[in-house]
Structure formats: C-alpha cells, structure tokens
Amino acid sequence: MSAWILVVDDDPANLTMANRILSDEGFRVSCVKSGALAVKFLNHNRPDLILLDIHMPEMDGFSTLAAIRENPDAADIPVAFLTADDDKAAMDKGRQAGAVDVFKKPFVPEELLPHLRHMMDED
Tens digits of per-residue pLDDT, 51-72? Predict the structure, then answer.
C-alpha cells in the first residue's frame, strides 16, 4: 500500500500542486486548508506523514503542530513544515518546534520527493 501524506495549506493552488505532484509519484494524498481542519482530520485518520504550512490564518503551523503532538493517536506522525520564508531563523524555529524537516515553497519535486521517501523509510 502506498504511503499516505496529509498536506495542510491555506492556499488552494498549493494544495492542488502538492496533490498532483505527490499523487503522480504514487502517494496517497489528503489535503485540508487549515490547521483546525488538520486537527479534526487526525481524530479519525492516521497518515504516514504531514506536510504543514507554517503561515496560515487563525491557527499557524506551530500551533497546529502543538495540537497534533497533544493527540496521542497522532503525536508520533512525522511533520515537515512548508514555508515561503527565505529566513534561516524561520527554518530553525520549525525544526526546534519538532518538525522533521522544513521545505521551502514553492517546492521542487526533484528535491522534495527523495526527502519524503527517506523520512517515511525511517518509520
């Protein structure tokens, strides 16, 4: 069975692009457009990996990650942040918050896909 990735991003264009790229590579993909929806989704689903945008209205990626870590059924799911920030401090903050990696948006499939496969092979 193919690995399942949850993509969380408030931008519909980013969700569409991620869904297309990941699906074309054989991943099972679910997309939600907010941190709150991701938390609800994880109450009933267990993907293998979460790609989480840092900058979202109402509930940013850091708050969403904290809520995910409070859910005993989802706490150990690897989370990688997505960010348009070109700021090393933001990337460091993401890793310090518990993300397994931080990817710059728009992501380059040739760079992202090998990292995703590697992260899921370690589980």
Answer: 999 989 999 999 999 999 999 9
* Domain enclosing residue 68, as ranges: 4-121
Token digits for 42?
A: 């994880």
Cis before 72 (ω within 30): no
Q: Is the dihedral of CA 105, 111, 113, 115 positive or negative?
A: negative
107 Cβ contact partners less than 8 Å away, ≥ 6 residues apart: 18, 82
CATH of residue 58's domain is: 3.40.50.2300
CA–CA gap between residue 22 and residue 48 (Å, rounded) = 13
Task: Supply 25's token pair.
Answer: 């590579």
Query: Domain total for the chain?
Result: 1
Q: pTM, whole model, 2 decimals?
A: 0.90
